[in-house]
């Protein structure tokens, strides 16, 4: 089967095979990584190496900390305002379901200004990033870098001057190179492009990690407690971190993020080129803002959508149904989706189109 799920999603087969080999006896320890103490030497090495590989891959500057946390990406929706809203004001750019949730959460802690939005056209595009009306007293500007549901992504990031930029990169982290120095904080729930559900990677500039958090912020929701304890304040999602470490190494073995970007562009253009030429299927995101990771598309009738999904499933194309809030179809083609998977899908779409032409 080819798994086009938006998350949890396909992982590299080589990573899963290696993990299976080590399942019962991790490097002569006589136990699985699932069973070992997070204070053991073996696990310290696993988490240390995972951080090292991630730093190399993304070229994370020395003045940024990497944290491996829990609570899903959704917990960051609260942790960010609790830790960064010193003036109790933040600017959000609204581009879909995930910024909607982030905005609702931030409103519990301070004033939220929605300084740009693409809600007028069902979030099918990214608002202009130049000449934004950034609030003088905003503690940060928040974006969702890749909108998993609507299939849009920022090609240029907002110009925020000396104001902090915070980005949710849950669905595109490690799909292409990024310049970390442009951000104050980046976070990603790993279950899309990086690893198994249960781990959230946070990359945060060191000076933002302080004791000065909103009153009542629980210990577990303070970046400082996790930074001071190298992500080992409490029991971490150990097995998940171990798999993430393997995925980082897998990307390194392919040539790093530049190479990954090329492969992702190749895969995405196979699908987009076909969508642009088809008279049955249509991509729903604005061309200039198309995601390399999530490709939503529709036909002009719900009946055809249902027929397509049914036939696709029977052939082993899994999880092509669009998000429950938007309908239609969506192919998520994360790093671990092989080029062959996208080619095979497009071949099937062509065949379906020929067979079902009016
Ligand atoms: N942000 C984005 C961009 C997502 O795609 C998701 C998807 O689930 C989330 C946040 C929420 O992640 P989680 O389920 O880990 O809380």
Automatic annotation (TrEMBL):
Entry-linked InterPro entries: Aminotrans_V_dom (IPR000192), Pser_aminoTfrase (IPR022278), PyrdxlP-dep_Trfase (IPR015424), PyrdxlP-dep_Trfase_major (IPR015421), PyrdxlP-dep_Trfase_small (IPR015422)
Localization in the cell: Cytoplasm
Name of the featured protein: Phosphoserine aminotransferase
Cofactor binding annotation: Binds 1 pyridoxal phosphate per subunit.
Catalysed reaction equations from the record: O-phospho-L-serine + 2-oxoglutarate = 3-phosphooxypyruvate + L-glutamate; 4-(phosphooxy)-L-threonine + 2-oxoglutarate = (R)-3-hydroxy-2-oxo-4-phosphooxybutanoate + L-glutamate
Keyword line: Amino-acid biosynthesis, Aminotransferase, Cytoplasm, Pyridoxal phosphate, Serine biosynthesis, Transferase
Subunit relationships: Homodimer.
Gene3D superfamilies, sorted: Aspartate Aminotransferase, domain 1 (3.90.1150.10), Type I PLP-dependent aspartate aminotransferase-like (Major domain) (3.40.640.10)
UniProt-listed GO biological process terms: L-serine biosynthetic process
Binding site for pyridoxal 5'-phosphate: 73-74, 98, 148, 168, 191, 234-235
Role played: Catalyzes the reversible conversion of 3-phosphohydroxypyruvate to phosphoserine and of 3-hydroxy-2-oxo-4-phosphonooxybutanoate to phosphohydroxythreonine.
PTM annotation (N6-(pyridoxal phosphate)lysine): residues: 192
Cellular component terms per the entry's GO annotation: cytoplasm
MF-aspect GO terms: O-phospho-L-serine:2-oxoglutarate aminotransferase activity; pyridoxal phosphate binding
A Pfam family: Aminotran_5
PANTHER family in alphabetical order: PHOSPHOSERINE AMINOTRANSFERASE (PTHR43247)
EC number: 2.6.1.52
Source organism per UniProt: Clostridium aceticum
Family: Belongs to the class-V pyridoxal-phosphate-dependent aminotransferase family. SerC subfamily.
Entry's transmembrane regions: none
């Amino acid at each position: 089967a080819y798994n086009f799920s938006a998350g949890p999603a396909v992982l590299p087969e080589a990573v899963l095979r290696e993990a299976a080999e080590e399942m019962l006896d991790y490097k002569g320890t006589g136990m699985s990584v699932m069973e070992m103490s997070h204070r053991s030497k073996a696990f310290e090495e696993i988490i240390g190496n995972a951080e090292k590989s991630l730093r190399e891959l993304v070229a994370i500057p020395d003045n940024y900390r990497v944290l491996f946390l829990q609570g899903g990406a959704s917990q960051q929706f609260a942790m960010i305002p609790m830790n960064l809203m010193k003036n109790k004001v933040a600017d959000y750019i609204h581009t879909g379901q995930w910024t909607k949730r982030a905005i609702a959460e931030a409103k519990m802690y301070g004033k939220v200004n929605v300084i740009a939005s693409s809600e007028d056209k069902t979030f099918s595009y990214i608002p202009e990033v130049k000449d934004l009306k950034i609030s003088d007293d905003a503690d940060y500007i928040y974006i969702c870098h890749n909108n998993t549901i609507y299939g849009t992504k920022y090609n240029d990031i907002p110009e925020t001057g000396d104001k902090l930029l915070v980005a949710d990169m849950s669905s595109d982290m490690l799909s292409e190179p990024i310049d970390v120095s442009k951000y104050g904080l980046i976070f990603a729930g790993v279950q899309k492009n990086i690893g198994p559900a249960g781990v959230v990677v946070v990359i945060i500039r060191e000076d933002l990690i302080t004791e000065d958090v909103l009153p009542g912020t629980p210990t577990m929701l303070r970046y400082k407690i996790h930074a001071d304890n190298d992500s080992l304040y409490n029991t971490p999602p150990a097995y998940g971190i171990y798999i993430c470490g393997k995925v980082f190494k897998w990307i390194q073995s392919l040539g790093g993020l530049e190479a990954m970007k090329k492969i992702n562009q190749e895969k995405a253009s196979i699908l987009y080129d076909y969508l642009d030429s088809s008279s049955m299927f249509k991509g729903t995101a604005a061309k200039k803002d198309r995601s390399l990771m999530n490709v939503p598309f529709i036909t002009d009738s719900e009946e055809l959508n249902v027929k397509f999904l049914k036939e696709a499933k029977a052939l082993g194309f899994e999880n092509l149904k669009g998000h429950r809030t938007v309908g239609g179809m969506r192919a998520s083609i994360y790093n671990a989706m092989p080029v062959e998977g996208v080619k095979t899908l497009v071949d099937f779409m062509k065949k379906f189109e020929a067979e079902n032409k009016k």
